[in-house]
Structure formats: C-alpha cells, structure tokens
Amino acid sequence: MSDTTGKTITCKAAVCWAAGEPLKLETVQVEPPRANEVRIKILHTGICHTDEYTRSGNDPEGLFPVILGHEGGGVVESIGEGVTSVQVGDHVIPLYTAECRECKFCKSGKTNLCGKVRATQGKGVMPDGSSRFKVDGKPVHHFMGTSTFSQYTVVADVSVVAVDKKAPLDKVCLLGCAITTSWGAVVKQDGIKGSNVAVFGVGAIGLGVINTANVVGASRIIAVDTNPDKESWAKKLGATEFVNPKELPEGKKIQDHLIDITDGGLDFTFDCTGNVHVMRSALEACHKGWGVSTVIGVAAAGQEISTRPFQLVTGRTWRGSAFGGVKGRTEMPTLVKDYMDGKIKIDEYVTHTQKLDNINGGFKDMHAGECIRCVVDMS
Ligand SMILES: NC(=O)C1=CN([C@@H]2O[C@H](COP(=O)(O)OP(=O)(O)OC[C@H]3O[C@@H](n4cnc5c(N)ncnc54)[C@H](OP(=O)(O)O)[C@@H]3O)[C@@H](O)[C@H]2O)C=CC1
Ligand SMILES: N[C@@H](CCC(=O)N[C@@H](CSC=O)C(=O)NCC(=O)O)C(=O)O
Ligand SMILES: [Zn+2]
Ligand SMILES: [Zn+2]
C-alpha cells in the first residue's frame, strides 16, 4: 500500500479543452479507484495518430474536455475493491480494447472486441458513469478507457494487463497500440506466408504490418506511400518494393499499377492510412477470386467507403481489424516476451521523445512526416 492509497492525487496531465486546440498542461485531481478499477502511475506513453484524430475533431465519438492517450506503460499505484488481476507495484499496459472474459463477445471465440465497458468508454466515463478526473472541480472526460496523457490515470480492471517488470516501459508502451495492432492484423490472418502483400501507408502501423509480413514469410511486400522519404523506412523493415502513387503516369490509378506488376493483383492488402479513397484502392488492388483487404486506418467522421459491388462478387474480401484482433489480457505477456527475446521489433519505431510539458511538440513531430513514433516521458 502506498501513502496515496484511497486519496485523490494531484498531478499533471495534458488536457484537450476543445476540438482542434493544442493540449494544455494542467494540474489535475485524480480520484482513487472505485470497485473493479485500477489507478496507474503512467511513466511513458506513445502518441498515436488516433490521438491526433480525436484532438482534431474528426472523431464522431470525440468529447471535450478530455485527457487523450492510449499507448501507455506504468505502475499500479492502487487498486479498488474486488480487483484480483493486478497488484500494487505491477508494471502494466492499459488496454483500450478490454477483455472481460465473460461477455458475449469475449466468450464467442470470434473477436477481441469486448462489450463489458465499451459503451461507457465511448462516453468518456468509467463503467459507473462518472469521471475520475477533475480540473478546478470540473470533470474531464476519459479517452479510450486509458487516458495515458496523465501522470496518473484510472482504468477498469478488465482494461489493464500486468507485464514483465524487466521490460522497458518506454518501449513496450507501444504494445498498447501500434505494435500489437500491426502484428495481430498479419499474424491472425491465415495464408500470408508465401503470398504477395501490399501495405498502404508507411507510418508506425504500416511499418509494423510490413515487418510482421516479412517475419511470417510473405514472398513479396509492396509498400505504398505518397511520402518518398518512407521508402528507406519500408525497405529497412522488410518491404521488397516501394511505390509512390504520385510518381505514376498521369491518370494511372495505384490499383491498376499494382495489378499490372503482380500478374493480376495482391493476395493481401492493408490500409494503414485512414483515407477512404486509399481503402478503395487497397480493395481493388486485390486479386480476383481470393484477394483480401484489411482496413486498419480510422477514417474521419462522415467518411464512407465505396466500390463497385462487382469487386466483392468477383471474390475479393473487405475486412477490418481493431487492435490487431488481439485479446490484451491473455496475449500481451507473450508479446512482451517476444519483444524481450528479439522476435518483435519495437525500438526501431521510437524516432522521437518528448517530455510531458512539450507533448504538443510530439504532435508537431507526427505532422512533420519524419516521425514514426514519439514516446513521451511522463515523469
Ligand atoms: N484499427 C486499429 O486498431 C488502429 C488504427 N489506427 C489507425 O491507423 C492509421 C495509421 O496510423 P499511424 O501509422 O499511426 O499513422 P501515420 O500518419 O504515421 O501513417 C500513415 C501514413 O500514410 C501515408 N499516407 C497518407 N496519405 C496516403 C495516400 N494517399 N497513399 C499512401 N500513403 C498515404 C502518410 O504519409 P504522410 O506522412 O505524408 O501523411 C503516412 O506515412 C491511422 O488512421 C490510425 O488512426 C491506429 C492504431 C490502431
Ligand atoms: N471513435 C471512432 C473509432 C475509432 C476506432 O476505430 N478505434 C480503433 C482503435 S484506433 C487506435 O489507435 C478501434 O479499436 N476501434 C474499435 C472500437 O471498439 O472502438 C469512431 O467513432 O469512428
Ligand atoms: Zn492508437
Ligand atoms: Zn468481454
């Protein structure tokens, strides 16, 4: 038990007060965890494009004021009544995709999407309907059930997993989103070994897909990005080729070019951009009869995907993947072990670091295009 157990903690957090505004460092009061809740001292957090998506106002579920962040690592400070899955002092990764092991979704064996806390999570509150965060007495919303841009956060016990204390939290925090998402999107799909694959968007997610496809033995991995600087990144992580759609002859669509160079199209494609036009290209670049396109990117409010239904009638499959289809409480300890054993790359993705008081600098880094992941030191 620590001397803060049962007390409100006053600490620093980056608060986004309104859509489109930069984050503001605030003194925040973090209430103790209630039943089946866990309070975590966050030590490190990545900044994901999805944080920027919600900050910008593009997220139809976005609520303000809010403490964003969902790619964190920290230490359990205290636990509420009934918590048995983690203990004070455990090193943990918060999970924006919960795993209760009791709900219809968890028991189905068909999905990692858990239903236990998703509704309240989407409303920016804890499962009992209230927030644990206040600034000057005013409640501030939680985000994705994690809010890792605060030095202390409170999460549901089904939304956190303990990991090996020897694992560096400034690296394995990226298993809270980017690395796990991209790893699972590939590993949980049969048939990638020996197949040709195209990956649209060479950010952290796209690079993770490229690297995992390489590890599982894809024969050809074509990276597609409009930023020419991404070619060296893609090849370093295992892409066999790089195509910049902006460098194609005028009027030539990227999907037609990919079909030409692959004798009819790709076995597997992945959208890692969040752009609905790219999603269409990724689907239409698939081989007739069997090609499978996975949407990973998150599109802005109001955006919709479209294609000719004939694309599906003729055997292409359009699917999506959230958190890589990974059940966090069950699978995360093994992912951490795989990282420690050198089987999963993480260090390579951390191109930038920032202190909490310059977290907006991390968002700027992301926009500059040369940043794969920025990890924020929360101390
Ligand atoms: N489904 C899930 O569970 C998850 C989804 N996501 C989503 O995945 C997406 C990728 O995330 P992340 O890797 O962090 O984002 P990044 O912004 O780092 O990467 C996206 C990449 O796509 C490139 N790009 C933009 N437009 C095009 C285009 N027309 N054709 C090809 N490439 C293009 C960007 O280039 P440039 O730098 O020039 O813009 C950038 O290199 C986001 O939408 C994010 O919200 C993230 C985590 C989990
Ligand atoms: N709030 C958005 C949807 C955002 C979204 O799709 N999130 C992904 C994770 S993105 C991580 O960086 C996800 O896992 N979705 C599943 C879920 O249950 O949210 C909107 O309303 O469009
Ligand atoms: Zn993310
Ligand atoms: Zn569940």
From TrEMBL:
Annotated Alcohol dehydrogenase-like N-terminal domain ranges read 35-163
Instruction: From the UniProt annotation, give the residues forming the signal peptide.
Output: none
Its Enzyme Commission number(s) read 1.1.1.284
Name any Gene Ontology BP term: formaldehyde catabolic process
Which InterPro entries does the UniProt entry name for this protein?
A: ADH-like_C (IPR013149), ADH-like_N (IPR013154), ADH_3 (IPR014183), ADH_Zn_CS (IPR002328), GroES-like_sf (IPR011032), NAD(P)-bd_dom_sf (IPR036291)
Single GO MF descriptor = S-(hydroxymethyl)glutathione dehydrogenase (NAD+) activity
Family assignment?
Answer: Belongs to the zinc-containing alcohol dehydrogenase family. Class-III subfamily.
In its UniProt entry, what is this protein called? S-(hydroxymethyl)glutathione dehydrogenase
